[in-house]
UniProtKB/TrEMBL annotation:
Residue stretches making up the Major facilitator superfamily (MFS) profile domain: 1-303
InterPro entries (alphabetical): MFS_dom, MFS_sugar_transport-like, MFS_Sugar_Transporters, MFS_trans_sf, Sugar_transporter_CS
Record's keyword terms, sorted: Membrane, Transmembrane, Transmembrane helix
Chief subcellular location: membrane
Record-level Gene Ontology MF annotations: carbohydrate:proton symporter activity
Membrane-topology annotation of the record: Multi-pass membrane protein
UniProt xrefs under Gene3D superfamilies: MFS general substrate transporter like domains
Protein name: Lactose permease
Location relative to the cell: Membrane
Source organism of the structure: Colletotrichum liriopes
Length: 344
């Protein structure tokens, strides 16, 4: 939504011959942040954070509200509370969490690779060429009118929003790996065609309107596949693969990867586009091939799993045995409570 407001407010003000041509879009974006700041206080607290801070009754109440809808905790909720409590206690029994914890076990090294590579992938698969330098891309194919460029950008942002909302509804139905791989393969195909059309267009003395339109179509197809996974998944997937004690640090690593790729995009992309033109697109075609291989071989599926079950995927047998012990204890406790209640 923010991108839509930014794109269309820019279209509405780009003819203004004063500083308000950029001030108005900036102020509108700041207004949205004010709404976020006000509404954040109505978001329920994380049950894991509550349990970690000794507020288990509050955590149970939240889980009960959203997972069972009854007044008394169900067996499912009791099991979830026991799993979360056991996982947090186990993680606390280890050495105090630090960034070094990421390299001390095989499971954590795997997590570190997934988190850092994902942060880099979502910013370095070709999307930043359009997001930040759409004017250069369109100018290269002969679309030089500023108003037309702004209209294309505005339409693209609305299109992105529609696809992102639709794909968000499919995350738990199709699974994480399917979304990621489909997204990257689709982007690879679209970017390859985009590169070929841009190359053919450049070879024409005066360009070709048809080839230029083809490039614009491929840009929309590319972003359809990008939004299919890269909008709804990143933060959710990163949080799923990280244990509670490393979650904050893992998000920092994730954001660091995005920051590093952003620096590259900011300093290299405009210079490379100006000098290499369509040839620079080949770099991203190769990058997309690499990302597909990385995700296929190293990114596990987490759909339908609790965070405690995901740890079994990374940490192996030890986490599995611990999970069975926690579940047995939780079920025994739940059965005991049911017998006590029945005796009354």
């Amino acid at each position: 939504m923010g991108a839509i407001v930014a794109a269309w407010s820019t279209y509405g003000t780009f003819k203004l011959e004063s500083n308000w041509s950029w001030r108005i879009p900036s102020l509108l974006q700041a207004t949205v942040s004010v709404f976020q700041l006000c509404l954040i206080y109505f978001v329920p607290e994380s049950p894991r954070w509550l349990i970690a801070n000794g507020r288990t009754p509050e955590a149970t109440k939240i889980l009960n509200k959203y997972h069972s809808g009854t007044e008394q905790p169900t067996e499912l909720v009791q099991l979830q509370v026991a799993e979360i409590t056991g996982a947090i206690e186990f993680e606390r029994s280890l050495e105090s969490a630090s960034y070094l914890q990421f390299i001390r076990t095989k499971g954590n090294r795997h997590r570190l690779f997934v988190v850092f590579s994902f942060g880099f992938i979502i910013q370095w698969c070709g999307n930043q060429l359009i997001s930040s330098y759409i004017a250069l891309v369109l100018t290269d194919i002969g679309i030089t009118d500023p108003e037309t460029q702004n209209l294309i950008n505005g339409g693209l942002q609305i299109f992105n929003w529609v696809v992102a909302v639709g794909s968000g509804l499919l995350v738990d139905r199709l699974g994480r790996r399917f979304l990621l791989l489909t997204s990257l393969i689709g982007m690879l195909i679209a970017f390859t065609i985009w590169t070929i059309l841009a190359a053919l267009n450049q070879q024409r003395p005066n360009g070709s309107k048809g080839l230029g339109i083809g490039v614009v179509v491929m840009v929309f197809v590319f972003f359809a596949f990008y939004n299919f996974a890269m909008m709804p998944l990143p933060i959710a997937y990163v949080l799923e693969v990280l244990p509670y004690t490393l979650r904050a640090k893992g998000l920092t690593v994730f954001n660091l990867a995005q920051f590093c790729s952003g620096i590259f995009n900011g300093f290299v992309n405009p210079v490379a586009l100006e000098h290499l033109r369509w040839k620079y697109y080949i770099v991203f075609v190769c990058a997309l091939l690499l990302w597909i291989g990385i995700i296929y071989f190293t990114y596990p599926e987490t759909c339908g799993m609790t965070l405690e079950e995901v740890s079994q995927v990374f940490d192996g047998r030890e986490a599995l045995d611990r999970s069975y012990d926690i579940k047995d204890m939780a079920l025994a406790e739940a059965n005991h409570k049911e017998k006590v209640m029945a005796g009354r």
